[in-house]
Amino acid sequence: MVASHKLYIGGNWVNSESGETFTSHNPATEKPIGVFQKAGEGDVERAVKAAESAYKKWKAVPAPKRGEILFRFAGLLRQNKEELARLVTLEMGKVLGEARGDVQEAIDTAEYFAGEGRRLFGHTTPSELRDKFAMTVRMPVGVFGVITPWNFPIAIPAWKLMPALVCGNTAVFKPASDTPLCATRFVELLEKAGVPKGVVNMVTGPGDPTGTVLVRHPRIRGISFTGSRDTGEFILRNAVLKRVGLELGGKNGIIIMPDADLGLALDGVIWGGFGTTGQRCTAASRVIVHESVRQKFESMLASRTKRLRLGPGLDAKTDVGPLINKHAVEKTHKYVTAGLSEGAKLLCGGKPYGKAGYFYQPTLFTGVAPDMKIAQEEIFGPVVSLISVRNIDEAIDVMNSIKYGLSSSIYTADINAAFRAIQEIEAGITYVNAPTIGAEVHLPFGGIKQTGNGTREAGIEGINEFSETKTVYIDYSGRLQRAQIDVD
Ligand code: NAD
Asked: C-alpha 454: how far from its chain's center?
């Protein structure tokens, strides 16, 4: 028997109205690890009501005081880092070292946005009229619906909830249904840190109805979503005039030029392509390699890929953990089959692995054309495609030939090639001599094209998604002054 968990509404841990539940599993063993409430329309309604009634009081708390709660939360995450990391590995599957990184990212985010409580800058600017003062101030938006994926089950909720809270919003948080245990523990620590009742509420359950009710709810003012492109599009259509922040998929590439340090590039491709079993929005699934080094790099990469050890994330010998669920194994295999039928050459991998657990062999294709499915669509699994190019122009064209625009990278010793990549690659992030993954929380994160709708998370720009700008004019002239009219 595994433990049963509850929804968190108005500061109380409660059952769903329907009494319906679902189970979360360990992807390395397929064994159940917890039972969770399936929140329906009535539960979401209760959570929104709780968030609404907490809003007025919370937004009146001075932002530095809100920040102090976030500092306390960061401290609790730090104290419980090892336990949380093990939980991430247990429920999501990533290897323990990466799971520690997931928790560390949440600690860094909580500390960064806690400090923001003493900034939350607006700006001042001169008025065009005499004896008039002009400035902007930041205001909270209201009740936010926060919908997160499973691949960073601690870090991504922090990316959203920390700036949301410091700006004075309240929230209804709907975590992914593959990682509700991590979310439950996250919320328990928020409660312990002193987040007042109703400020954060958690409804567990599937995308439909739990997520859809939230997205369509008339009294939710903003939706912050990270997940797939298709769900993002659904949200944008259904949220109508809410403020919407979308962080969606990627099809990221690494360019390798002839002058690159191939050993360094190899480390980068292995980490970028197979880290988190390829289940990162910034995963490097395309390696765009100059033809003069293609053969050499290909054999280096194939021999390293074949040596990667698959296994449970808690095993210290494991390099690559399981995929999240059965559907992910099927989806990955569907793409591998498509790659083969479109004529790509399989260098290694290409099959599910093991008797229990959702494992898939690290897979490498070469001879991939830029327009093949495996080079265009997000697989979200351990599949890397090598695409050969003749020069930097072609490399950049291939890099840009996709619908997404999240992360990108170039390995080169040529400063001109590096700057061309920085200037011409259509992506929210470009790394030089480093792989496509490795975001730091004090810099903005997000993508262009179909990776999102223009918002950025983390860093100072993370505040913009969760605050409104109010423009303030203070006229101390004692007479009516008319902008644009009293021009002389
Ligand atoms: P998903 O879109 O299936 O689910 C994400 C969340 O949305 C889950 O909580 C899910 O229950 C919910 N959801 C699903 N359908 C919904 C609906 N109709 N209405 C409201 N909510 C709904 O994505 P996923 O499989 O959990 O995550 C993988 C995807 O996330 C990949 O595409 C990946 O690139 C993307 N991702 C992006 C970033 C980024 O910052 N750009 C970061 C991590 C993951």
From this structure: 14
pTM for the whole structure: 0.97
Query: Could you tell me where in the chain the CATH 3.40.605.10 domains are found?
Result: 7-248+452-472
Q: State the first-to-last Cα distance of the chain, in angstroms, to the nearest integer.
A: 81
Average of pLDDT values for 229-255?
A: 97
Torsion of CA 343, 346, 347, 351, to 10 degrees: 170
193-234 pLDDT per residue, tens: 999 999 999 999 999 999 999 999 999 999 999 999 999 999
Place of tokens 């490399």: 395
Strand partners, 470: 137
Is the pLDDT score of 488 beyond 80? Answer: no
CATH number for the domain whose boundaries are 7-248+452-472: 3.40.605.10
Give the pLDDT confidence score for residue 487 in this predicted structure. Answer: 77
Tokens of 415: 């400063």
Could you give the CA distance from residue 371 to residue 208 in angstroms, rounded to a whole number?
A: 33
In this model, does residue 270 exceed pLDDT 80?
yes
- Structure-block tokens of residue 15: 């059952």
Q: Tell me how far apart the alpha carbons of residues 455 and 465 are, in angstroms, rounded to a whole number.
A: 6
Residue intervals in the chain for CATH 3.40.309.10? 252-432
- In 3D space, the residue among 49, 40, 9, 8 whose CA is nearest the CA of residue 22 turns out to be 40
Q: Which residues line ligand 1 (CB under 6 A)?
A: 147-151, 174, 176-177, 206-208, 211-212, 215, 226-228, 231, 234-235, 247-250, 281, 378, 380, 406, 451
pLDDT of residue 384: 98
Superfamily of domain 252-432: Aldehyde Dehydrogenase; Chain A, domain 2 (3.40.309.10)
Helices 81-92 and 96-116: angle between axes, nearest 10 degrees: 120
Q: Is the peptide bond before 258 cis (omega within 30 degrees of 0)?
A: no
Cα gap 236→452, rounded to integer Å: 10
> What is the enclosing helix (H) or strand (E) of 475?
strand 467-475
Q: How far apart are CA 367 and CA 371, in angstroms?
A: 12
* The predicted structure's pLDDT at residue 138: 97
Largest CA distance in the chain: 83
177 — pLDDT class (breaks 50, 70, 90):
very high
Q: Does position 440 have pLDDT exceeding 90, yes or no?
A: yes
Which is the closest atom of ligand 1 to the Cα of 234?
A: 18
Nearest CA to ligand 1 atom 23: 227
